[in-house]
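Sanity check

After download, print the first record. It should look like this:
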Amino acid sequence: SLSVELPYTTDDEALRAVLGRRSGTPSALTRFPESAAWFSLLSAAKPDELWTLASGLLGPDSASAFDTADAASTAAFGMGLSELLFSWMGDELGVLGSDLGPAPVFFASIADEKARKRVFEQAFDSLLMGRDISSMVGDQRVPRIVFPRWMRAFLESVGVKLVEPFYLIEDGFIWLSSSAETLAA
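Expected C-alpha cells:
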C-alpha cells in the first residue's frame, strides 16, 4: 500500500475543484481481461472538464484547433465535438496493452448510453462515417467504424492515415482497437 499527499496551490478555480476531489477506485479496473499486460487510466473528471483545464494550459492555439475541429464536426455530422464526444462519455479514459498482440485497446466509460446511441446512429447515418458488421471472432460479431474510400484516399494523399477501429460496447464502456481479435478477447 502506498499513500502520498502532495501539497498544491493554484489560482485556477476549475483546476482547484478537480484536484480537490477525493479519488475513488476506477470501475475499469474490474473489467480488464486476464491478458492485460499494462494500462494507463485517467479518472479525474469528465472529458469536457479535462478539455477546459487542458485548453487553458495549452494556450490559444489549442482553442483555435478545437474550434476548427468543432466546426468541421458540425458540418460533417450535424453536431459539434461537445455533443459528438463529451455528451455521453464518463470520467474514465484509458488504454491497455494485451499479451495477445501489439494492438492497444482504448476505452472510455459511458455516462449516458441513450446519448451515445443517438450520437452513434446520427454519425453512422452521415455520408462520412459508417459501420461494418461483417467481422466475426469466434461466435462474436465485432463492428468496425469505417469511412468512405474517397475520404481515405484523399486524406492519404496529404499524408493522413485514417484509423478505422473495431469497437465493442460492454458493461458501461466503449472499447476500441485496430485488432478485432484482441478486442474480442
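If your output differs, re-run the checksum step. Summary of this record's structure: The first helix runs from residue 13 to 19.
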